[in-house]
Amino acid sequence: MSPRLAPPHRRRRFLPDKAKHMPSHFHAIVWIDHTQARIFHLGLSGSDEITLHPHLATRHLHHKANEIGSGHAAPDKTFYAEVTKALADAGEVLIIGPANAKTELASHIRANAPDVAKRIAAVETADHPSDNEIVAYAKRHFKLPLPRVQAPT
Questions:
Q1: Which InterPro entries does the UniProt entry name for this protein (predicted)?
Q2: What is the mean pLDDT of residues 55-73?
Q3: Domain-located, residue 93
Q4: Domain hosting residue 36, numbered range
């Protein structure tokens, strides 16, 4: 004999209402240099990756003596705006990268998206890690559980 269910208006909810509206990917990490941004959104259900590239091809500039200018390319504001938009729904953001792009992105976010800027957890130096290394770095930083490795039987 099957159990009888209570009418829908009397059934108990096992998940609080708050849990239904929580994003599945709360943390984000972005690895950025002047040629690309690799963005990973992390949560209990796994991770998602987005790779963005600047619209203009990056070229090397060389500074010669007695020339005006620093010899550095100007920050690509459109590129940084796209990265900022991709980070807009993250609860906490970690920005990593090998050179100045990470600090330029953080400055851009602070100047143009103060709501996202409040969620920047850290800006740190990282060379050129693989995708798996980026995700593992973020999990250590945010103290997320690492996947369990089962011992061979």
A1: eFR1_2_sf
A2: 54
A3: yes
A4: 24-55+71-142
